[in-house]
Structure formats: C-alpha cells, structure tokens
Amino acid sequence: MILQVLSFGLFLKVLLLPGSNLAPVTEQNLEISTITTVPSNETKADFRFTGRYRLINSTNFDSFLSELGLGYFTRKLVCATQSEYIITYDRSDETHSLKTVTLLRESEIRFRDGVEFIENRIDGEKVRTVIKIDKNRWIQKQFVKPEVTIVREFDNNLINNTFTINDVVSIRVYEKVSDIDEESVQLDDEVEDY
C-alpha cells in the first residue's frame, strides 16, 4: 500500500474544500513524500523464505560431519543422499518450520525468531539452539562444545548454507523448486529430528 503524505514545512494542509478560505495548493508550495506501509495483517514479510528447495551443491560436508563426531559409514550415507528443505511459516504463532527430507529420514525444526529451543541434531545430541533472522539470513547457533554456527543466506531462488564447527567450514547450496501454498501445507507434529 502506498500512502502519499503532503507536507509544507512544519504544517500539513488539507486540500481545499468548497467554501474554505485556505490558499490553494500549488506545485510551488507542495512537497510530496511517498511512504511504503505494510498491511497490519502481515509481519516482517516472513513468507519470503517459504518454499521447497533441493540440494544442488555440497562442499566439505563430510569433514563437517566428521568434526561433529559421525562415523565413516554414516557420513558417507548422509553425503550421498539427496536432500530437500521444505520451509513454511505459521502466521498464527509466528513460527518458521525447516523440514529436511532425505531418503533416509526426515527432520524438522520449528522456531521463532531469536527464541532459544532444543534441537535434536543428526549426531543424536540434543542441543540448545537459537535462530536469529537478519534481513535475508538465518543465523543459527548451537550452544554445545564445540559451538556450531549455520548461516542460511536466501538469495533469489537459492539458499547458501555455511556450516562452521571449529575451523571446518562446509557450504551447501539449495535451489528453490516450488513455492508452498501456506494453506495446503500440513506438517506432522511428530517428526523424528536428526
């Protein structure tokens, strides 16, 4: 919605009404500013992240999983499996859902921006986690020794994921394959996390 604001220095003037004795508004004494407003029923454009994304590139993920403590065969199986993200947003309680789908299993994390929660990681650890949304980035911190940071940067139809543990960095890129109709998505309440 675009709102036009008419301003005259410190005064706001109303356009002439019939019978008014105010001076007419002219281009010389009129300054027009445009302000973009967000409808009150939408908050922070949280639907900009939603969609189904498919893994298209992965670099150094085996080393990242090794640093987490996963065994050789588990790492090889995880790295060889195609992965998808399904990201939804629930307007009623302002929660985001990141569901990871593979041939092996599915996991889901639900979170509110900046609110700590317990996450069941791929290595079986339950860790304190927080995800902070900063413009087009989700910055995730897992508070465990050693600390893990995952930055998901949304850029057009891609998500560039940077996984960091100690000095090991892995990059995984997901490409958007479809939009999600928010009304039709029903995610299971009981989903095994990994």
Can you say what the CATH homologous superfamily of the largest domain is?
Answer: Calycin beta-barrel core domain
What would the CATH topology of the largest domain be? Answer: Lipocalin
Integer tally of domains: 2
Shape: globular
Structural class: mainly beta
Strand order of the largest sheet: 6-5-4-3-12-11-10-9-8-7
Largest sheet, in brief, is: 10 strands, antiparallel
In DSSP terms (H or I, runs of 4 or more residues), the helix count works out at 2
Helix content: under 10%
Calculate the mean pLDDT score and round it.
78
User: So, CATH architecture of the largest domain?
Assistant: Beta Barrel
Query: In whole angstroms, how far apart are the ends?
Result: 42 Å
Plain-language structure description:
The chain has 194 residues and is mainly beta. The chain folds into two domains: 2-36, no CATH class; 46-178, Calycin beta-barrel core domain (Lipocalin, Beta Barrel). It is 9% helix and 46% strand. It contains two helices and twelve strands. It has helices spanning 61-68, 72-80, and strands spanning 2-7, 31-36, 51-59, 83-90, 95-102, 106-111, 117-120, 126-134, 137-143, 148-155, 158-165, 168-178. The strands form two sheets. It has a ten-stranded antiparallel sheet with strand order 6-5-4-3-12-11-10-9-8-7. Strands 1-2 form a two-stranded antiparallel ribbon. A hairpin with a 4-residue loop joins strand 4 (83-90) and strand 5. The chain is globular, with a radius of gyration of 24 Å. InterPro entries: Calycin, Fatty_acid-bd, ILBP. Keywords: Lipid-binding, Signal. Residues 51-68 form the Cytosolic fatty-acid binding proteins domain.
